Amino acid sequence: MTRTARRTRRTLQVTGAGVAALLTLSACSSSDDSPSAKSDPSASASDKVSGTVTVFAAASLKESFTALGEQFEKAHPGTKVTFSFGGSDSLASSITGGAPADVFASASPKTMKIVTDAGDASGTPATFVRNQLEIATLPGNPDKIASLKDLTKSSLKVVLCDKTVPCGAAAQKALGAAKLKLTPVSYEQDVKAALTKVELKEADAAVVYKTDVHAAGDKVEGVEFPESAGAINEYPIVQLKDTQNADAAKAFIALVQSAEGQKILTEAGFLKP
What we know:
Blueprint (H helix, E strand, L loop, with lengths): L2 H37 L2 H7 L2 E8 L3 H14 L3 E8 L1 H9 L6 E3 L3 H9 L3 E11 L1 E5 L20 E4 L4 H12 L8 E3 L2 H9 L5 E5 H7 L4 E3 L9 E8 L5 H12 L1 H9 L6
Parallel strand pairs: 1-2, 1-3, 6-7, 6-8
Antiparallel strand pairs: 3-10, 4-10, 5-8, 5-9
């Protein structure tokens, strides 16, 4: 074999070895990248979430959603969750009227339907919790209220939620099932307003949600009544069609539906969906 032939053969061998080495490195790199990507599936999703997400939510969700908002902001640095709490019917009307929002969490399917019928929802609403009524009385229950029927006593000042909001509609359903007629001293725009009347001692009792009695602590005392079992409200949540931050909206809804979110909600007194 000539000197030139030997040189050519040696060059081909080195080149082949180099290609093989590059192929091996490439395979190792792909193998290393794949597990790390799979081990942290939230990493890429987390990178997408930024900016502000605006949530319209039923008044009864105030405490638990505020806690969820703080958790969301910690999980996604640089984000901000802003809330508008109130009667579900008023919130629904605001949304259909063009109020800017990304997520709507309602206290009943009926009020959610206002939004879906108007074509303002993106996707199908999903029930994430349920809530049950309870009677809120003054601390120590000085009027010895023990049943829904006791609220019909003329000597008592009782407050109900307006019939158009979910807590009011549920109260009317419970009263109807018990065949009771109750004339309150006032109808309030949302459940928090009704509860405040008792906290300020402007009313002796109010029909609210168990979650609100729980949130009020020692400011009120709760009285359960059997008719409430037939008037449980389902709470649906949905991303809104005109959202300006779809990624954050989806991420917030995912948190609400997650095990962590459900723990916060059930600890607040909500029932599982």
